[in-house]
Amino acid sequence: MKMSCKKMVSCVIIGIMVMGLVASHANAITCTEAISTLMPCKDYLIGKSNFVSVPCCTGASALNGKVKTKPELKSMCECLKQAAAALHVIPERAKSLPAICKITTPIPIDPNADCNSI
Hints:
Layout: H1 2-19, H2 31-38, H3 42-45, H4 54-66, H5 70-87, H6 91-100
Helix pairs in contact: 1-5
Function: Plant non-specific lipid-transfer proteins transfer phospholipids as well as galactolipids across membranes. May play a role in wax or cutin deposition in the cell walls of expanding epidermal cells and certain secretory tissues.
Keywords: Lipid-binding, Signal, Transport
Protein name: Non-specific lipid-transfer protein
């Protein structure tokens, strides 16, 4: 049963990637790239680990530096919102990630985020 749940989550993530939720500019990071960049954070975000890894913070910092315009921020918010819901991210952990990684970002990694408020 656990294996089918893992397969389902993987299918949802791949579905998000295939949908091609891309940022508005050719040089902007895509949804696929963003999810890949944040995958080192997964264990912390879903409660499998109590520690944030260095690769997680490196990825979060890199992503933070690539998304600048309001349309890019909104697009990335929608991307991460869907990924967070698919992975069953713990909202409190997602909200704590910027402080732990010492970054400031307007993009919430939260399945309950209001991306229209960006």
